[in-house]
Amino acid sequence: MNGTVLFDTNIYISAILFGGKPKELITLARSGELEVVISEHILWEIREVLSRKFKVPETRLNAIEHDVLNLAKLIHVSSELDVISQNAADNKILACAVDGHVDAIITGDNHLLSLEKYQNILILTPQKFIKQREGIK
Fold first, then answer.
1. pTM of the entire structure?
2. What is the CATH number of the domain that holds 63?
3. SS3 of 38, please?
4. pLDDT, tens digit (0-9, with 9 covering 90-100), for 55-103
5. Cβ contacts of residue 128 below 8 Å, gap of 6+?
6. CA angle 121-43-128, nearest 5°?
7. How many domains in the chain?
């Protein structure tokens, strides 16, 4: 699977702190094999979680934000969706995916994953995305 994707906040956090499949996805994006879109909300959420939960210092946060902006295309999100009632922030992820015309959302979030698909946008774990992508090669 090629095309445009959206990495949920948890993918960036996992890639930065733990590696694994999320880091593989970042590597694919960095090499130009994936086109990635991001919103101001996702950028803010990355900073907020890294700062609050993991006590990442401001200088490192700035470097991470710079790196993410080199990796992903920042888009303006105008859609407002109310699809997931359990976690309103997930609706901002969906809205970014819709406005960014992505083919897939890659996430570890169960609220999003339970949808499986939204308006022809696949919602996959990093493992499933990589597996599907390798099946196409």
1. 0.94
2. 3.40.50.1010
3. strand
4. 999 999 999 999 999 999 999 999 999 999 888 889 999 999 999 999 9
5. none
6. 35
7. 1
**Residue for token pair 């694994």:** 20
Q: Where are the beta strands (DSSP E) in the chain?
A: 4-7, 35-38, 73-74, 104-106, 117-118, 121-124
C-beta of residue 24 within 8 angstroms of C-beta of residue 127: no
C-beta neighbour count of 128 within 10 angstroms? 15
Beta bridge partners, 6, equal 37, 105
Domain that holds residue 65: 4-136
**Contact predicate 59/79, CB 8 Å:** no
Burial class (CB in 10 A: 0-12, 13-18, 19+), 75: middle
Given a contact cutoff of 8 angstroms between Cβ atoms, the answer to whether 33 and 2 are in contact is yes
